[in-house]
Amino acid sequence: MKIKVKSLNIQEAFNNIGDAIENIDPAEWPQDIDRFIDLDTYEDLDLDRIIKKVQGTGILFGYKSEELGKNTGKVKSLTTKSKIELPFNWQSSYMAVWDTPKGVNVIKGSKSKDLAATTKIAKEATENTGRSSFVIVGAYPVGQPRLCASIEYKPSANTKLAEFTFIW
How many C-beta neighbours within 10 Å does residue 61 have? Predict the structure, then answer.
């Protein structure tokens, strides 16, 4: 299967994939609709060859098929800062993350000072979902938010959306 989604970026396109596949028979949906492999993150790929190999596997792959239009707006991003009181103390803990040791998607309920407890949660999550998980050491500020600022892209009114193709 192959579908195309117009969006500002591939993550936003992936988040909107449900709208694009709602008219497709659920039996033909990808095996795992909660994640995808972004082919654009790999350099020097023969995209045509990859598409032939992965199509029909049921694994969801995505790539940019049409570039984002030029942003002619004067303001191209919006910054929102969080209020943080300095200084603050750091707390270390174990946490389990999905898919890669550098992952940022923490498995719910896995943050703990006990390695065995975190490992058990990660193991159960992997066995229940089929997704790989990794236990890492993380640090977070005590009593303060981790988010210091968010910077969001602000397209101009006439910016042409990029097109992303998803195949499975």
Answer: 20
